[in-house]
Amino acid sequence: MAARCWLRSDLRSAVRSLRLRAACLHGAASLRQQEAPPPEGRFFSPVGGAMLLPGSFRDKVAFVTGGGTGLGRAMTTTLSQLGATAVIASRKLDVLQRTAEEISSQTGNQVHAVQCDVRDPQAVMRCVDQLEALTGLPDVIINNAAGNFVCPSERLSPNAWRTITDIVLNGTAYVTLELGKRLIQARKGAAFLAITTSYADSGSGFVVPSAAAKAGVEALCKSLAAEWGRHGLRFNIIQPGPIRTKGAFSRLDPTGSFEEAMLGRIPAGRLGTPDEVANLAAYMCSDYSSWMSGAVVRLDGGEFVSMAGEFNELRRVTTEQWAVMEAMIRSTKGS
Ligand SMILES: NC(=O)c1ccc[n+]([C@@H]2O[C@H](COP(=O)([O-])OP(=O)(O)OC[C@H]3O[C@@H](n4cnc5c(N)ncnc54)[C@H](OP(=O)(O)O)[C@@H]3O)[C@@H](O)[C@H]2O)c1
Which residue in 293, 267, 286 sits closest to 140, CA to CA? Predict the structure, then answer.
């Protein structure tokens, strides 16, 4: 009897703490004292460096929005290492130029920097003009630029909504339509890739403009995969889980206290790395994946499924507790 009470209260507290964890940053902080770090972290060490064969992107041009920082920079570096000529575009020309020089000096391949605010369709048109003049039309287009910040939805202004959806959804649409039209006219094939996020599927509170816009990006890409395959254009999507980049974490986890809660729910026991996204992106944009279109690949160490299954919290039950549970279940007769 005492064992049953202890078990029930322990399970109840596990479930209660799960709710707390989702509810607030303070919940995350208090959980930190209760939970041991996931032992799985000792497995699944990240492997860096380019995975594909050297020269896989020789004579190819890759255009990467938001290529000056974070995941965009990592993807550009990998493609450049594999032989691509790269063009990176975003608002901050000085950042782009510095990144372009650093990557180019590391790989020996050309990296061009083009200023562009993807929210402005005229600016996108000018950027694509410049891209064509520099390298010709690209073989690879990665829609990676984004903006996001955590905010209770009741505090969102129309301007905040517009800013995020303009960068993420409209910006992706302007780049995709402008390049798509020109590629179709030139009868040139290309691989498009969009970087979204796992909550594009589920939605997520506190990042609602981003969730809505990323879901829109996925619908755009899947629709065009169906419509424009006949023009030699394919469209795929990567949904990364949490990966520490300055841009993402400074606006999504400003106090740093959410990171441990994230680690607690990732079965692989660690965050992802920019190189892991870069290698997957390189494969999905390469000729090795030319039969892949309309695909959505989640790369998150198992975080999404771990949050989704209602019984997954039972991983916190110890072997001794399982012995008691099993005895209770076996002793139950009828319904
Ligand atoms: N890191 C993660 O944990 C994570 C998880 C899931 C998904 N993602 C996705 O991964 C992608 C890259 O994010 P990140 O973590 O690498 O963050 P990041 O370094 O902040 O990258 C965002 C990039 O977008 C560019 N950008 C922002 N507004 C723009 C605009 N109006 N026009 C053109 N470019 C603009 C920024 O450059 P400028 O400031 O120079 O414009 C920056 O280079 C994003 O799509 C993000 O949603 C990241």
Answer: 286
